[in-house]
Design goal:
- The protein is an alpha/beta fold and about 240 residues long.
- It has one domain.
- Helix content is about 30%, strand content about 20%.
- The protein has 6 helices and 8 strands.
- The protein has an 8-stranded mixed sheet.
- Helix 1 crosses helix 5 and helix 2 packs antiparallel against helix 6.
- It is globular, with a radius of gyration of 17 Å.
Length: about 240
């Protein structure tokens, strides 16, 4: 049994960064990746000190069992996943997400979400038990890009990074995204909340995140014919 974890933080420069995973130990790697990436970007005269979140919270879902591996993600699970992530993405600039959230198999789940939410940059990762320790199988970071918007000159590029599940890879992914966004801004490739309304909305709070996560867990329970657990955990 495991839980979903959702971690949402506001970086020192105001960017909003979030994590969704079914691996509870990834939260610490996510935090460490941010702290290292931002230690010289927080506007302070202490570049050797790790950065801190301006604000952050974590929510854990009810327990559930991972769905067994199949040939494809069940349609009901994929639809519920899309609904959950779309709800969690309000105002989020960078999302770290498990490549195969809640599924034992190595099945992609984020393709539709990335296409529909072009104002957010995505960092996808998987668990070591699936990809193994061979660097040829799980490279440190692999970055792709796609035009953010169909309108205009398509200067701005959406990052889609696949990376190793470790703090140094998360750090490198954040650095790449922040650097590219700065370059895009200099060339007029700004984030457009007039096109993607969700990016201009306030991020969701802890209570809303709790409800959203557990609706997805209910779908996993239903698909796996499981009995929902009665308790869940929250933390600051």
């Amino acid at each position: 049994m495991t839980n979903l974890v959702f971690r949402s933080g506001i970086a020192s420069d105001g960017r909003k960064v979030a994590l969704i995973s079914d691996q509870l130990d990834v939260e610490e790697k996510f935090d460490n990746g941010y702290k290292i990436a931002y230690k010289d970007k927080d506007g302070k005269d202490t570049p050797e000190l790790l950065a801190k979140w301006k604000e952050a919270f974590t929510v854990h879902s009810r327990e559930f069992a991972m769905l067994p591996c199949g040939d494809a993600v069940p349609a009901a699970v994929q639809q519920s996943f899309n609904t959950m992530v779309s709800s969690l993405l309000k105002g989020i600039d960078i999302l770290f997400c498990d490549y195969n959230l809640g599924i034992e198999g190595d099945l992609p789940m984020c393709n539709d979400i990335m296409d529909k939410h072009r104002s957010t940059d995505f960092v996808l990762f998987s668990c070591d038990s699936l990809v193994g320790g061979d660097p040829k199988v799980q490279p440190h970071t692999v970055a792709y890009s796609a035009p953010r918007y169909e309108q205009g000159q398509q200067i701005a590029q959406q990052h889609r990074i696949y990376c190793k599940t470790e703090a140094s890879a998360f750090c490198q992914a954040i650095n790449a995204i922040v650097t590219q966004r700065a370059k895009d801004n200099m060339n007029g490739g700004h984030i457009r909340d007039d096109i993607d309304n969700y990016i201009g909305e306030p991020p969701i709070d802890k209570e809303a995140a709790d409800q959203i996560l557990n609706r997805f867990v209910e779908t996993l329970h239903s698909e796996g014919n499981q009995t929902p657990a009665l308790t869940h955990q929250e933390s600051e």
